[in-house]
Design goal:
By secondary structure, the chain is an all-beta fold. The strands form 2 sheets. Strands 2, 4, 5, 6, 9, 10 and 11 form a 7-stranded mixed β-sheet that branches.
Length: 119
């Protein structure tokens, strides 16, 4: 059973970079046709897909966030990471990492990490 766990700072100042890491156990991030996504949900709003990195290293981004988002991976540590630049309070949300069999499929989820953007 694949398990995912988000980690990173819970508080980020405006204009800085939000960085989160998802540690994966029970499966490899290089497993064929596996896709590893970041999503977020702000209070009172719906779930927003931010982007994904595929088993082969290809990346996919939400066009609305693409200019500020970067997703990378460390295959040795079996982790993938999110960087969101130039954050504002509107980026305050619970951030989730997920695994699916396609870019827009989310079969396994981390527990979520609350990130607050505030000075």
């Amino acid at each position: 059973q694949v398990q995912l766990q988000e980690s990173g700072p819970g508080l980020v100042k405006p204009s800085q970079t939000l960085s989160l890491t998802c540690s994966v156990s029970g499966g490899s991030i290089t497993t064929n046709y596996s896709y590893w996504s970041w999503l977020r949900q702000a209070s009172g709003k719906g779930l927003e897909w931010m982007g994904a990195i595929a088993y082969d290293g290809a990346t996919y981004y939400n066009p609305s966030l693409k200019s500020r988002t970067s997703i990378s991976r460390d295959t040795i540590k079996n982790q993938f990471s999110l960087q969101l630049n130039s954050v504002t309070p509107e980026d305050t949300a619970v951030y989730y990492c997920s695994r699916g069999s396609w870019v827009y499929e989310f079969e396994h989820w981390g527990q979520g990490a609350q990130v607050t953007v505030s000075s």
